[in-house]
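FW: tagging you since you asked about this chain on Friday. Here's the raw sequence from the shared folder, copied in full. Didn't touch anything.
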Amino acid sequence: MAKGDLGIDLGTASFIVYQRGKGIVVFEPSVVAISNKTGEIVAIGEEAKKMIGKTPDYYKAVKPMKDGVIADYKTIEAVIKRFITITVKKTLFFKPELVIGIPTKITSVERRAVFEAALNAGARQVHVISEPLAAAIGAGIEVMRSEGSMIVDIGGGTTDIAVISLGGTVVGDSIKVAGDSLDEAIIRFVRKKHGLVIGDSTAEQAKIKIGKIHPSYETYEMEIKGRDAVMGLPRTDKITSDDIMETLRPIVDGLIGRIKMVLEKTPPELAADIISNGVVLTGGGALLRGLDTVISEEIGVKCMVAEDPITCVARGTGILLDNPELLKAVATTYAR
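HL: got it, structure written out here
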């Protein structure tokens, strides 16, 4: 494999690209600004995110990933092409090999569409791997062992729960309860309790800056800005960590219920391994303060947040770029 080869995490919340020999070279919000006149991409990531709700009629800001799946393949093809262009710009005729993390419940048709989008974007060969398996590799789990490991990858659109052994998922589940769901719950709470309409970004910032889900963690307060639901005028108010905990706990309880269901379906030998090794949390949702503590208390198994959980999928694809034998064992490959 060449140094320009790329590992890509097409997340609902973030696009993260790992370049062989360099590490992570792209880490941007999964937002794309498109010209209504030409259909061309005019901005990707943070620049495009700033345009949401503020763009003039000749631009539109879109999120090509929705609930963990690709909602707009044409845009994703253009995004991958942009990634290839900006990372291998010095070698114009080089076609990189790509490793792409994909959702667990993707259909064979959707899987093929990912292949086609990547090849049309300029890749010479494409490998796809399920996101929880890539996350496990990125978190340092030795996935080829017979010993069982459990990964809970909490992304923006979906949460993937997987029991992994011998390079594959033995038992798994994928649910549309993740970071976006938590943000939406905060938006509803603020409107109901404070009569204030806030946007997605404000809710996300509140979750990140002061959010918690376990009472033992310190409580903070944050000023939020929005529009009065009755008067329609700009207004500020305050929200606390306890508010967020009260709001998000029912959603987290639902997630824990699904984790328990996966554990109940796990073969006894692998369940014993998980009791010994614990559950590993990855994805941006893993950063919610106290989530590991709550899950551990509810399922009776130790729970740990992976190092730099947001980038685990991308780093997992990067490890595969450096390990052809492991890549062959765990990924599906396609080339023209």
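FW: The first strand starts at residue 6 and ends at 10.
HL: agreed, and The chain has three domains: 6-134+312-334, 142-176+258-310, 179-247.
FW: great, closing this out.
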